[in-house]
């Protein structure tokens, strides 16, 4: 297979993650089976809705991740206190080892990509 394609309808079928009622997440593209881990790539849809709930323990990113905000606005804050609010069209890059809190005053839909194994929807977040 040379390339893969998803219609916009996939955006309405993103499952909730088990440990957070305000986040939907789905890996939609992953490198072919047999690809070496250092050469693999996974692309994911990420949706977060407005919530006043305090963030859980921040997960430590085990790989670099990059993405783009497709709709809405999202706030990122890292372990140093650096904050940014991004809107549709803005891009981000999170460095491996970082701890980042995601939030939104309305909602945000992002497409993210990183070099990691396919995300296990049943696992707990990687916590310190």
From TrEMBL:
<dbReference type="InterPro" id="IPR014710">
    <property type="entry name" value="RmlC-like_jellyroll"/>
</dbReference>
<protein>
    <recommendedName>
        <fullName>(S)-ureidoglycine aminohydrolase cupin domain-containing protein</fullName>
    </recommendedName>
</protein>
<dbReference type="InterPro" id="IPR011051">
    <property type="entry name" value="RmlC_Cupin_sf"/>
</dbReference>
<dbReference type="Pfam" id="PF05899">
    <property type="entry name" value="Cupin_3"/>
</dbReference>
<dbReference type="InterPro" id="IPR008579">
    <property type="entry name" value="UGlyAH_Cupin_dom"/>
</dbReference>
<dbReference type="InterPro" id="IPR010424">
    <property type="entry name" value="EutQ"/>
</dbReference>
<feature type="domain" description="(S)-ureidoglycine aminohydrolase cupin">
    <location>
        <begin position="61"/>
        <end position="106"/>
    </location>
</feature>
